[in-house]
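Example 4.3 (complexes with small molecules)
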Amino acid sequence: MILDGKCPTGPIEKTWDKHRFDLKLVNPANKRKYKVIVVGTGLAGGAAAASMGELGYQVEAFCYQDSPRRAHSIAAQGGINAAKAYPNDGDSIYRLFYDTIKGGDFRAREADVWRLAQVSNNIIDQCVAQGVPFARDYAGYLDNRSFGGAQVSRTFYARGQTGQQLLLGAYSALSRQIKAGTVKMYNRTEMLDLIVIDGVAKGITIRDLTTGEIRVHMGDAVCLATGGYVNVFYLSTNAMGCSVTANWKAHKKGAFFANPCYTQIHPTCIPQHGEHQSKLTLMSESLRNDGRCWVPKKKEDCGKHPNEVPEEERDYYLERKYPSFGNLAPRDIASRAAKEQCDDGRGVGPGGRGVYLDFATAIKRVGEHTIKERYGNLFEMYEKITDEDAYKRPMRMYPAPHYSMGGLWVDYNLMSNIPGLFVLGEANFSVHGANRLGASALMQGLADGYFVIPYTIGGYLAGIKPGDYSAEHAECKKSVEEVKAGIDKLFSIKGKKTVSEIYRALGKVMWENVGMARSDESLKLALKEIPKLRDEFWNNVNVTGEGGDFNQQLENAGRVADFLEFAELMTKDALVREESCGGHFRVEHQMPDGEAKRNDVDFCHVAAWEFKGVGNEPELHKEPLKFDNVHLAVRSYK
Amino acid sequence: MSDHNTMNLTLHVWRQKGPNAPGKLETYEAKNVSPDMSFLEMIDEVNEDLIKKGVEPIAFDHDCREGICGMCSQVINGVPHGGQDRTTVCQLHMRTFKDGDNIFIEPWRAKAFPIVKDLVVDRSALDTIIQAGGYTSCHTGGVADGNTILIPKPEADYAMDAAECIGCGACVAGCPNGSAMLFTSAKVSQLAVLPQGKVEAATRVNAMTEALQQCGFGNCSNHYECQAACPKGINVKFIAKLNREYLKAVFE
Ligand SMILES: Cc1cc2nc3c(=O)[nH]c(=O)nc-3n(C[C@H](O)[C@H](O)[C@H](O)COP(=O)(O)OP(=O)(O)OC[C@H]3O[C@@H](n4cnc5c(N)ncnc54)[C@H](O)[C@@H]3O)c2cc1C
Ligand code: FES
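Answer. The structure with FE2/S2 (inorganic) cluster bound is encoded below.
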């Protein structure tokens, strides 16, 4: 099937305005007759629930944490982009649009990206009105910085906690609607199934994580804003509870999964310290403005104290390989280069999985004081975790899984191929193509939540009868029974392995074979290993406790079970995509100098997969991508 | 990376099946703990051992494990988050302990935070306080350009200092009265100092302090244990600010 993204046509700068006008409206008096279910209350879901509640819809919102204020959006440090062009440095909606298309390596839809760039400015205004304390200059104006290699300063920030402040802004708007009674919030509640009646999404089946109760919630439409899936690698910068579960359950009910192989590996994270590590911590990419990456030239030097390795014995590999960009090479390139050095046996620190990020030259140039002013909080955080003083010896860094560009397929209205199912934020695939630029995920989450879904959902709801569902429908009963049966099955195994043991093993397979560099061989190996682990899980896992209780082992087991299925799809997608683009690097497809080699003739499309049963071949549907406004060109960072 | 050797510890952990079940401290051994592990990773390992022995693992709240979501919440040796300066329990590392240590691990204890299970408590009362008025009543869309109202840098910085609160509830757990004054005052202060929030300052401080009482939090009697317990270093000056805002509201 050739998929249609239903993008409006005509001059790109008019597309969103025209589309908004063309959308059908729901009469204000009728809005309260419609119920909308929002799963996930991070930036995307929190903003969506608050805005739709304010419009007058009845909203029910869900999150797995004990409060909507804790979604993983909270961890974003760097900032949020907008095309305000306040610094008068030549930025514009068009430039933000252009940068995002190019940064995504020409694998995103033009119309969606244009809209994102257009509404980016409204987001900043909205957040200011909410009381988000963005950084200001001495004249009282909003401050900007340049971020992620952009040539303009378009990033707005709130100290090193931009995500936290934006999320608390959305949370406050959500809290206001909860108080007003337009949004009913369900904390510590996990969605475990999507209810589809006659081909239309009408509800969800959830587990109350405190009491263990399984029940259905029905509505006229369902929005998933459940975040990303890079925890498929086990170790990542995501929170412990981030999972693919909500997306995967929807996928099993018919929603297409788009570009699952597009994942982003962030180059500067604190390396793993041992086998017991539970998560990885990101260090802002801004460190590369002053830090120089190196590893010893000789393997024998890797165990030495870094300060004892003489200058001529150090390999400043980024400066050597990319003389013009040097240490500021883009994320995907910097990550792969670090991995290559370590694979070559010249990594440092535990397990040889680390490279140095050295500030000695910068300290000599501008003084320790200035470096402290620039990065003091990061050096402190680094010391807390590693017990090393980065003013005295270089930091150790290693790349870590960070973000998923892939997600459920959606059309221009953010609706999946299942009518009534909408997908927002990191959970959808829409705007970042094969690689996401820094400071643009926060922008996307809030764009989707505040300024896209409130309009587009109206267009859908206006065409259906409100309240046209019943919790007594056979599909609801079936869904509840299936969820319960799945849980019973987990308890019945009583095997010898813990959930974490199998999860770690999966992470290892994925990281080694479907991580930063993928080959035909490694992907085929992963496709052999994943089903074995899945078998091992379903035959030999031990889930303790009971279902009718607060049970974190059970929660985790369910999430891992879904990752064990999803991992296979992700790997297949990587195998079929015989090109390198953005975060997806196939070693067979590279330029002589090691750069990614795209294949626009065969792969300038979105790969959207249809579920055909666990272990069965999924069916691939393609949505061709057209570039009418940005010329398809090869990215170059030399 | 530190060069210390691994250590063996004895944990005394609060176990409680449910909100109404009796609870007690159970003793577990944590063996071969690496000093580079985080406190929660140490508990992960103890839990793996318990599962292998057929004992239900210890329930505890956590999510981001980088000190920002506010989910982790444990009283360690009598101190919320373990007492290391500006550090959440998820950022606490085992190198601050030594071989042979006895460690007492308990949940947040406060009337307003009923225990859910083991170390997990119900903090929804904090959400209730925010719902009472911890926002500006702006509508989505239709707001002014972000630079229309200038905000002097010191005020923006002051608001940011207050806004750093992660809502973990350590201030409540640390307070002898179980008061949520520091938490409430941080939000009141952040919004009262910004022009966008000033308009509703009086109704906000009234509504939020009233909710504070209704939720079963104790009164503030200026012990300032809250500031000592706060992993983000939220300053008690915000409590003074709340009191001023409250008086202003009364006289208005
Ligand atoms: C360490 C870090 C730093 C980052 N820094 C930046 C940055 O500087 N700039 C930038 O633009 N982006 C950054 N990002 C990316 C960005 O933060 C995220 O992509 C974005 O915040 C995701 O928002 P979201 O609303 O889609 O999902 P999330 O914030 O992850 O929210 C997901 C929600 O879904 C809920 N949920 C999930 N599954 C279920 C289920 N089954 N049932 C019920 N509820 C469920 C959760 O409870 C939560 O409420 C960073 C990411 C990380 C990890
Ligand atoms: S787990 Fe998020 S702050 Fe500790």
